[in-house]
Amino acid sequence: MMRGRTWGQVLIAASLVACGANETGGASSGAAPEPDVLAALRADSNRDGEVTFDDDSDTHKREWDKTNGAVFLANIDDDNERCKATGDDIAIAKCNDAQDDVVNGDDDALDLARLKSRPWPKTPADATGHIAILTEAAKEHVRIFRKVGEGAADFEVLAEDYVFTAAEIQAGFELGIEATDIVRDQEAWDGYVEVQLTVTSPTKGESTDVVLMRVAPVLTFHHLLPTEQVWVSNTRSAGNAAMRADLAASCKAAGLPEPKTIDDEDPWTQDFFEPAYMTMPGQGGTQHVMRVNYRSANVFEPGKKKSPLRPAGKFVFKQRGRDIAGIQQFDITHNPDMDTLNSFGNFETVPPHEKDGESFPFGRVVRGKTKSYYPDKSFTKMVAAQGQQPLIDVDTSWLLVAHIDETISFVKAPTPRGWVMLVNDARLAKKMLEDAVKAGKGDTPMFVGKSWVDFDSGEETPAEISISEVLADTEVMKASAEAAAEVDAQVAILKKEIGLTDDEIIPVPFLHTTYAGKSAAYQPGTVNGIYISDTRFGAPDPHGPTIDGKDIFKTALSAPLAKIGVTVDFIEDWDDYHLGIGEVHCGTNSTRTIPEQRWWESGR
After folding, report:
1. Which one, of 190, 527, 220, 216, lies nearest residue 365 by Cα?
2. 565: Cα separation from own chain's centroid
3. CA-CA distances (angstroms) from residue 599 to 9, 178, 603?
4. Pairing state of beta strands 287-295 and 324-327?
5. Phi-psi domain of 135 (left: phi exceeds 0; alpha: psi -120 through 50; beta: other)
6. pTM check: above 0.90
7. Coil, strand or helix: which one is 104?
């Protein structure tokens, strides 16, 4: 499949054929005589991590499909760790290895994709060469370097008017290419670039050759990828300490290192950064990886033009370093009443799946969004521009915090799809309590030893309440019925988009109540947990009624997950988190393993 073939390319191809060149994007007959003038440029078009001329493996250089097409990276990490994590929001985001036009050491050189010209012993003495970027939209986003020495980092930026000598053409030369940024808007630049080599001899004529390349997209992680590191803020409060202790125990049971703490008073670790990654082919069939952390587009102080963003989000630039990049994108004029949607609790990645014959090997991003209530449009455009994880929108506007992680999650399962979706089910929660009343257990208490807190006055009131009293609470019953209907609508969309069946959905019971006119979890929302490993799910402790020695809401989650090989670790999060209208997932984050699948093999 040829992508974006223009009349200019057709004319170039015709010119190459006319002068007998064999570097036209496919191998020609071996009987063809060597041309008088030869422009022969190659990149790693077969994606084996090398640029070669001794066979035709890299000759399909103007194609982009599942098997052919050269890749390069947005070189926005900080290999020498020279960038500071201080300063205003605008300045802090600009520092990276693509900020300047030098190669910042050997590690930085590894982030350059290579192009090479074929050595040509019969180069005419009057021949000269020139490299040009043909793709107009790519010119401000792409930089090319010229190899000038034997050292790994011996590159100089290639000036637009640089002329290669006959000696350089004869010996063959090497180039490195980087993007100075990721694709943020497909209409401005789609990530593709055509690089042209022109060789001109006043006595012999002119020849051109073109290579098509594409910058790597940024991909986000789905829950099924193995966890490498769990993150949690350390706010130095008792409630935070309790959650961190249980989280550490769960990680230890899963064979993971102790959670890393972020020293920040913002407890919502899920919300202010989103781990992601970019890859290009490496040598020996490997992937050269650059990890990326997105900063949330939360605008906390729009009056501060240079530093309007959520302060905790600077964490992404504290992490910036060798093969680790930080990215931010925001519109300061975005309606502040919708700002909660920019938190990454409202950003999840559905695991890989197929639907109607179309494969989504890296899953799809799902967010809360409606026509009238939506996240920052510029950030959404950037995510969509990556082209690999098409977005799914569901309505979360009825929720006070309006995050997708309040109602759904994903875990591995021995099913044909390989995973199931956990979904909040308020109807089931109500039925469980009603069944308890029928069994004569209506006086059994819930929320034993817990308190509600008035955040304005700081006044605490006991939260303990009987099953019968909960069922008699008209506000809770009304909010739960409404939540059930809203979740039904979310599930309907996900079934349609993903192809899920009822057998691939596990109901997770908890009730809702109303705060400030919108819905929130009345009980700790046990769907809002962290999938720590293939066999462990860390859920908030529901503090439900204990009947026959068991918390019936713990059993309602742990029993169905046990059937698919997942143990539930219940994590204390009432203080700070549940009382703050959030749960375990909201207060944690995770760095996960880069998948073995190569994004370029999707052909998307």
Report:
1. 220
2. 27
3. 26, 18, 8
4. parallel
5. beta
6. yes
7. coil
